[in-house]
Specification:
The chain is α+β, with helices and mostly antiparallel strands. 40% of the residues lie in helices and 14% in strands.
């Protein structure tokens, strides 16, 4: 059985190592964007629906940029399969890509 001093030193090493660990998130330059909007899918969405997320315009307010990227999230495939944990297949994702980009 390890002595108390060895356990104490080991505990300090573990605590110290945990204290200096940092997440290595990419910088905005590395990611290619700085502010990303999460957009949940719906049947029809046009550019007019997304325009308010890009910039505020109109009236006496000066134009302001809001989001410079969009992450489109779907929760169910066209076969009604949950995309988070369901057994999706390649045709499920091809269907979604065709909806977005066709």
């Amino acid at each position: 059985m390890p002595s108390r001093s060895i356990r104490f030193v080991f505990t300090l090493l573990v605590l110290f190592a945990c204290g200096i660990a940092k997440a290595q998130y990419p910088t905005p330059a590395q990611a290619g964007f700085s502010k990303c909007a999460l957009i949940y899918d719906r049947a029809n969405r046009g550019q007019d629906d997304l325009a308010p997320y890009v910039a505020r315009q109109g009236g006496k307010v000066k134009s302001e940029w809001l989001f410079d990227a969009f992450l489109f999230l779907i929760q169910r495939s066209d076969r009604n399969i949950r995309t988070e944990y369901g057994e999706t297949r390649k045709p499920d994702w091809e269907y979604q890509l065709n909806r977005w980009y066709a």
